[in-house]
Design brief:
The complex is a heterodimer.
Chain A lengths: L3 H17 L6 H25 L8 E9 L4 E7 L3 H18 L8 H20 L3 H10 L1 H11 L4 H34 L6 H4 L6 H18 L8 H8 L2 H26 L1 H28 L3 H20 L4 H32 L10 H4 L1 H15 L5 H16 L1 H26 L16 H19 L2 H27 L1 H14 L1
Antiparallel strand pairs in A: 1-2
Helix pairs in contact in A: 1-2, 1-4, 2-3, 2-4, 3-4, 3-11, 3-14, 3-19, 4-5, 4-6, 5-7, 6-7, 7-9, 7-10, 9-11, 9-12, 10-13, 11-12, 11-13, 11-14, 12-13, 12-18, 12-20, 13-14, 13-17, 13-18, 14-16, 14-17, 14-19, 14-20, 16-18, 17-18, 17-19
Chain B lengths: L13 H19 L8 H16 L17 H27 L5 H19 L3 H19 L6 H32 L4 H10 L4 H18 L8 H8 L2 H25 L8 H21 L4 H21 L3 H29 L14 H4 L1 H15 L5 H15 L3 H27 L15 H19 L2 H11 L3
Classes of the chains: A mainly alpha, B mainly alpha.
Chain lengths: 515, 483
């Protein structure tokens, strides 16, 4: 069988290697090769969707080669209903991003494109890896190009932002590394086998206290990545300073790694700890949803506004995930895809304005709809999708999450709805301030409308917004079996928790009080 | 009366003999053909190193020779090859440096080789006397090398400081050895172990002896709080010498510690695991925190090398086969990456080491993209970021320590490596992210053949040991089973 996942990881690396031998001066050739690499990679990744078998939670397209036999580490890749869409989202977004960034970056073009391609390979690797060591290698590898992207091609305070990004993420990651190692030896103590195979740990029963601590280590690593309030402070800085391409990839894909981590590691490996932590995780998620929305309302920098909206949106994903219901988790995954598309598109929109005016301050704009009608049309679609308007993808995700959360806890759902309302408020207000009103600023009167290239890369995003909004079934169908399997694991943990004498007693107490 | 000649197996010390021979030859050449041999000296030394490496990778000697004073086992072989690697890389980065600084004497290379012989003796020593012999041969060579750029004041200072404090530390070491000998009546490690476990000895004196040994060795490996000499000496010494000192000699001392503790002190009434763990935490933390605030790249790398010794000691505190083999692997990786990084520093520093500040790396990436790329890979490896070898080495260390139940030690270590990233990243920041204030008037930097060769070796090690580490891990693992 053709090792399709390895191919999807290697193609960008081959592209990056090719670029090393292209002369620095031929910048368009460099951009062309990068784009072509991404298109080939996307094309190669498409069969993943078509050939993906529904109705099974097993890993598909699996590849396995011994890597470090004495440790039990393997080069092991595979996809399930969750990672499938993350990989597709990555290969899809990269095509859009590379096309979008054609003129945005003018210095050190070669280095820039190499960094992008390495980043792409690492991101696909993170979603495919089924071995702890391999996963961790990709997880960290990804930091290097992202660090350079922000640090070299970023704005004024780029060095501060990029160091903060790196140290935050790294701080979380090393704790995860520690937890992985503890887990590894626990598994050996229980079974006598040394293995880093992630799936083997999915059915590994552990002592509850230990589970809690390990869950916490993983949680912090992922919470920083998502980012969940209060670990979010690196995000606005990183987004504001990053070049457009960096922001789109950061929001579109990198942040998903945190929520993906919950689904791949936290829930299935530590089901009991997840269930007992659900209340406080949901609480910080809801705080994040509302806090992010309020912060977004208060921003005068467009990029910062979108960055805080990410904090809010990803709060929904976390909330849905920790509801442990079929709809909550599928909604979470849907929302991960949606957020990748809509927020990616929003950053591109900010980038389009920034390329024309070199400012991101909302106050500098106003009345842009008059000079850029095509742009206005696309902007409003993206804005509506971001706030979850019916017919757009955002609606499907949010509604699924809210239903899923409602099934688990109606209070959480009620609180989360506040976030939806605020989301509409900051998005529409942003749109009004930038696009409507009078054209007061002289500099804005001559802004050119979207070019053919800009339309070309926005078009697929708009198509995806409506496609997923009107007919999400093809996506949900593919992830169903995997999510159902995960929910079954969580149900078992919930039952176990209820069966626990102390919990049982507490429940009885509650019942008595109600009577 | 029949006199039984002691069993002496000269073939077992083949690599040492070759190096000593070549070093003596260099001294003679230096004395008689001073001018003519200048360009040839490094290559003579390098040839010697290659032959010694060939000899060292030959058959092993399962039994210790020289009446149990010397063991040419797999453990010693691993370290000998590691030292030779470090020496070869040092010679390669020295070629241009010594010419620029007008110290291209045969003696410089001869001293490097003598130091290497000292390290080899240490790795193979199974007797306190041999240990001491090796340490002294190494140290005295290093005292001279540290001050080799005679006209530079800091270099003289480095040499003098190193000599005075080093002599003091040797005193501790010797006193410790003397106490142990006094208690057990033996200098042989295996016999000491036997005596300790089979007799009623004065445990108080033994404990003091072991602790004195630990202090002496702690000084040599630059473990905090015995590290005070390190920053000044590392900063003052010529850059290739600093590179040399930071890799091989540390590995040699760790080799001695592993052999000693594995074979003898483990039987003593000393809770040495705790001591090593305390030293490890102190060393990592002090090295990292001090490195954070440095503005001089050379001094920063000096503190970084202190912290790396700390990580290696975490592996020792695991007190297990895995832990020790993780130390072996770590030191191998460290040799590959650190000497490469110092090589680039030597180039950037220019003549007379005028420009070793971090800001002298500004814009390096756009003038020498290839070298900057290599440097980036090396510092990311030093920071322990995958897929570079530095990560695998740390991973192995952490793994062994967790297996031994040293969870808190590992948490201290992982947090330290997160701190460490901050200053390693600064290289990338200066090279890639800062713009030069104005057009530079300095001549462009060109990498010499020696530096390129050294960097190729360095890159190979950093990538190979990071991505496909299995074989080298097995080698390090097997080396531990040999005694």
């Amino acid at each position: 069988m053709f090792p399709i996942l390895s191919a999807v990881i290697l193609i960008p690396l081959i592209g990056a290697l090719t670029l090393l031998f292209v002369p620095k001066k031929s910048e368009n050739l460099i951009r062309g090769i990068t784009l072509l690499t991404a298109i080939i990679d996307f094309a190669v990744s498409l069969p993943l969707y078509c050939d993906f078998k529904e109705g099974t939670a097993a890993m598909q397209f699996a590849e396995r080669i011994p890597w470090i036999p004495s440790w039990g580490a393997e080069y092991s890749l595979g996809l399930d209903g969750i990672s499938l869409f993350m990989v597709l989202l990555t290969t899809f977004s990269c095509v859009v991003v590379y096309l979008a960034t054609w003129t945005a970056v003018e210095k050190h073009v070669k280095e820039f494109n190499i960094a992008l391609l390495v980043l792409q390979a690492a991101m696909v690797g993170v979603f495919c890896a089924l071995d702890f060591v391999l996963f961790y290698v990709f997880w960290e590898l990804m930091l290097i190009p992202m660090y350079l992207l922000i640090g070299i091609w970023g704005g004024q305070r780029r060095i501060y932002a990029t160091v903060k990004f790196f140290i935050y993420t790294m701080g979380g990651s090393v704790l995860m590394l520690f937890a992985i190692l503890v887990l590894y030896f626990q598994y050996h103590a229980a079974t006598g086998i040394y293995t880093f195979d992630i799936l083997k740990y999915h059915s590994f029963a552990m002592d509850k206290t230990l589970q809690f601590w390990l869950f916490l280590c993983f949680f912090i690593a992922f919470a920083i990545k998502v980012p969940i309030w209060p670990f979010h402070t690196w995000l606005p800085d990183a987004h504001v300073e990053a070049p457009t391409a960096g922001s789109v990839i950061l929001a579109g894909i990198l942040l998903k790694m945190g929520t993906y981590g919950f689904l791949r590691f936290s829930l299935p490996i530590f089901p009991d700890a997840s269930v007992s932590a659900a209340w406080w995780v949901s609480a910080v998620a809801i705080i994040g949803i509302i806090f992010g929305a309020f912060m977004a309302l208060a921003q005068d920098d467009m990029k910062k506004l979108v960055a805080y909206s990410s904090v809010s949106h990803l709060g929904f994903v976390v909330l849905g995930t920790f509801a442990f219901t079929l709809r909550g988790i599928s909604g979470g995954i849907m929302q991960m895809i949606n957020h990748g598309i809509s927020t990616g598109a929003l950053f591109l929109i900010v980038g389009i304005l920034y390329e024309r005016r070199h400012t991101r301050l909302i106050a500098e704009y106003g009345g842009i709809a008059k000079v850029m009608p095509k742009f206005a049309f696309i902007f409003i679609i993206v804005a509506l999708s971001s706030m979850g308007m019916p017919l757009t993808n955002g609606f499907i995700g949010e509604v699924m999450i809210l239903i899923g959360v409602f099934e688990a806890n109606s209070v959480y759902a009620a609180l989360a709805v506040v976030g939806v309302l605020l989301g509409a408020a900051y998005m529409l207000w942003l749109f009004r301030r930038v696009m409507f009103g009078d054209l007061t600023n002289e500099k804005n009167k001559t802004l050119p409308d979207l070019s053919a290239r800009e339309l070309t890369y926005m078009a697929p995003l708009i198509v995806m917004i409506f496609l997923l909004g009107v007919y999400p079934n093809p996506v949900i169908r593919k992830m169903d079996a995997t999510v159902a399997n995960l929910v079954a694991t969580m149900e078992k943990a919930k039952v176990a928790r209820l069966a626990h004498p102390a919990a049982l007693a507490a429940n009885l107490d509650m019942d008595k009080k109600r009577d | 009366m029949v006199i039984v000649p002691p069993s002496i197996d000269l073939a077992a010390v083949g690599p040492e003999l070759i190096l000593t021979g070549v070093a003596s030859l260099l001294l003679l050449v230096g004395a008689f053909f001073k001018e003519q041999s200048r360009a040839l000296n490094p290559w003579i030394a390098l040839t010697g190193v290659i032959f010694a490496a060939g000899c060292a990778s030959g058959p092993l000697f399962p039994h210790s020779t020289f009446q149990g004073m010397y063991s040419a086992d797999l453990f010693a072989q691993f370290f000998k090859l590691l030292f030779l690697l470090g020496t070869a890389m040092t010679i390669l980065i020295s070629i241009k440096y010594t010419v620029d600084e007008q110290i291209e004497h045969a003696e410089y290379y001869a001293l490097l080789l003598f130091a290497t012989v000292g390290m080899m003796l240490m790795a193979a020593a199974s007797d306190l006397v041999t240990v001491f012999l090796g340490i002294e041969l190494l140290s005295i060579s290093l005292y001279v090398l540290a001050g080799y750029t005679r006209t530079r004041l800091v270099s003289n200072e480095a040499s003098l400081k190193y000599f005075l404090l080093g002599g003091f530390a040797t005193g501790f070491l010797l006193y410790g050895m003397a106490l142990i000998y006094g208690c057990t009546g033996h200098t042989n490690l295996a016999k000491i172990a036997y005596a300790v476990s089979h007799g009623s000895l004065n445990t108080g004196l033994l404990t003091i002896g072991a602790l004195l040994l630990l202090v002496g060795l702690g000084f040599k490996v630059a473990a905090a709080p015995f590290h005070q000499w390190t920053p000044d000496v590392y900063q003052g010494a010529p850059i290739p010498v600093t590179a040399f000192m930071s890799a091989g000699p540390k590995a040699a001392v760790l080799a001695v510690m592993i052999r000693m503790f594995e074979q003898s002190i483990a039987f003593m009434n000393v809770d040495w695991i705790v001591w090593i763990a305390v030293l490890a935490v102190l060393t990592m933390t002090v090295g990292n925190i001090a490195a954070l605030v440095q503005t001089d790249a050379k001094r920063m790398l000096a503190f970084s090398s202190i912290s790396h010794a700390g990580y290696a000691m975490v592996g020792m505190a695991a007190a297990s086969r895995e832990g020790s083999s993780a130390v072996l692997y770590y030191m191998l990786v460290y040799t590959f990456m650190n000497i490469g990084a110092f090589g680039i520093l030597a180039l950037v520093a220019r003549q007379n080491e005028q420009r070793t500040a971090m800001r002298d790396f500004t814009g390096f990436a756009y003038k020498n993209p290839g070298l900057a790329f290599v440097m980036t890979i090396l510092v990311f490896s030093l920071a322990g970021i995958p897929p570079m070898a530095g990560f695998m080495a740390k991973f192995y260390i952490f793994m062994s320590a967790i297996k031994a139940g040293q969870n808190f030690l590992v948490i201290a270590a992982v947090l330290n490596s997160a701190i460490g990233i901050y200053y390693y990243l600064r290289f990338a920041i200066y090279m890639y992210m800062k713009e030069e204030a104005g057009p530079s008037t300095l001549p462009p930097l060109r990498a010499s053949l020696g530096l390129i060769l050294a960097l190729v070796i360095s890159l190979y090690g950093v990538i190979r040991l990071g991505i496909l580490p299995a074989e080298y891990l097995d080698f390090a693992g097997k080396a531990l089973l040999s005694f």
